[in-house]
Amino acid sequence: MSNAQREPLCLVRGSINIDEFFHVPTMVRPGETLSSTHFERRACGKGANQASAVAKAGGHVKLIGAVGEDGGVVRPTSWSS
Questions:
Q1: What per-residue string of b and e applies to 52-67 under the rule 16 or more CB within 10 Å gives b?
Q2: Which stretches make up the Carbohydrate kinase PfkB domain (predicted)?
Q3: Cut 0.85: pTM above it
Q4: CA-CA distance, 18 to 23, in Å (whole number)?
């Protein structure tokens, strides 16, 4: 396959973060403490979000980003260090 026939590649270099979401039954008021009903972590970050958007739009994308020692949530065991 010649270079002219290859699918374009979008290379994203950016941040990969973990966002934590605490679900609460109502909006918290000043001085109020609520217990959460559900907790979840999601991989986010500007770079990760951009790469995800390109992939969802049908593009071919690769993401380059650094993951720290505490990044076990986003680093599959198959990745090299």
A1: bebeeeeeebebebeb
A2: 10-70
A3: no
A4: 16
Q: How many residues does the chain have?
A: 81
Q: For 11-74, give the DSSP string.
A: EEE---EEEEEEE-SSPPPTT-----SEEEEEEE-HHHHHHHHHHHTT-EEEEE----TT-TTT
Confirm if 12 and 53 have CB atoms less than 8 A apart.
no
Both tokens of 16, joined, read 């990969």
Summarised one tens digit per residue, pLDDT across range 18-67 is 888 999 999 999 999 999 999 998 878 888 889 999 999 999 999 988 77
Helix (H, G, I), strand (E, B) or coil at 3: helix
Structure token digits, residue 64: 């380059």
The CA distance from 67 to 55, in Å, is: 20
